[in-house]
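$ run holo --ligand "inosinic acid" --emit tokens
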Amino acid sequence: MNSLAIIGAQWGDEGKGKITDLLGEKTDLVVRFQGGNNAGHTIIVDEEKIVLHQLPSGILRENCVSVIAHGVVFEPEAFLEELAKVESKIKVSPERLKISLNATVITTYHKILDAAREGKSSNKIGTTGKGIGPAYEDKAARRALKVKDLLNKEALLKKLKISMEEKGHLFKEVYSVEVPSIEEEALRLLALGDKLAPYITDTFSYLDKEARSGKKVLFEGAQGVLLDIDYGSYPYVTSSSTSAAGVFTGAGTTNGQVDERLGIVKAYTTRVGEGPMPTEITDAIGVEIQKIGNEFGATTGRKRRCGWLDLPALKYAVKASSLTSLALTKVDVLSGLKTLKVCEAYEINGKTYDCAFPGLDLEEATPVLKEVKPFNDKFESESYTSELQEYIKLIEDAVGIPVGIVAFGPERKQIHFRKSYL
Ligand code: IMP
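-- output --
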């Protein structure tokens, strides 16, 4: 196995960072292919918590080269701040960190537009406010700034002017917000470009060359399949391809395939922001899970909504990303609960669905819940109680792929491998 993709199999926050970090030990390259600093990948090393937003989670491994590929929307200022924090712990040279010259730049205007829309528009999504949607909009509208433009004053000014033609009107007439002038924004971005220059490169050819020479590549997804722009619970989604398909457009693979597509799934469900969540628990158990699981967004600090494991959504994520195995995370959070349920199907307008699909009206879904035997495991060894074994088997039987990893805490040592990877 030479390539592996880590894909969120729910609405994000499944614990992808810690699995990437752990598998980083065995890999040569860790590649981000979509999203931006809306991601918050938490890793705990020696009891110290590190949250990564744009840097690939391989950055904490000296053996790994971290790549930010062209499918990413890149926020240069936040990136340099994050890099400075990481550099206080581990040395990062340009040999170990590569940024695609063709990644799309998030500008101040994107952030202001994101915030203005969330504040005023009737289509509130509950975004992270990082300018992700507006940056991807400019990319699709063919007027985005690319990272290479940060190194070229003329191109930068020209493109900023084009991108402001319509936005200037929106800022003034629709949202009444003050924004920096084009010249101010250009100077800010050029100064950032100077600092980024040593890391900027053609990551596509670099990846191609490394993969052809037999290097092991891990593609690190951000968010989750249910937030995918095409596969997710539209319109309450992010603006990128969070499913495994995003690897091919956002980074590229040499042989047209990713050998293992590892879906990360929490033992229950969480969601931040607006949008349907059929298994949401609105009573005291939901609050208990939220507290035990410390379910607060790593990027925005917002409380995450909590619910039972949603098998129709998980089955769908497995199909939509052709997942080959699962990592089941935060199992410890459910251990000791008096009641445990899973959702086996949805009822929508008198029909029963045991697997979601694009466009299924999740807002109208009533979950068909099944009580399962609660488990109370201490996780001192890799042998589990029969109740936990049943819980894992129920998931495997429902989705048809194995649970290859079980994580019962945030630390590297709290993760069990039932299958070998890379
Ligand atoms: P955006 O990506 O900031 O545009 O936000 C769109 C939706 O995706 C919102 O519901 C966010 O809460 C959600 N979202 C974006 N990034 C993450 C993440 O890393 N984890 C969980 N939810 C996220």
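-- notes --
The radius of gyration is 21 Å.
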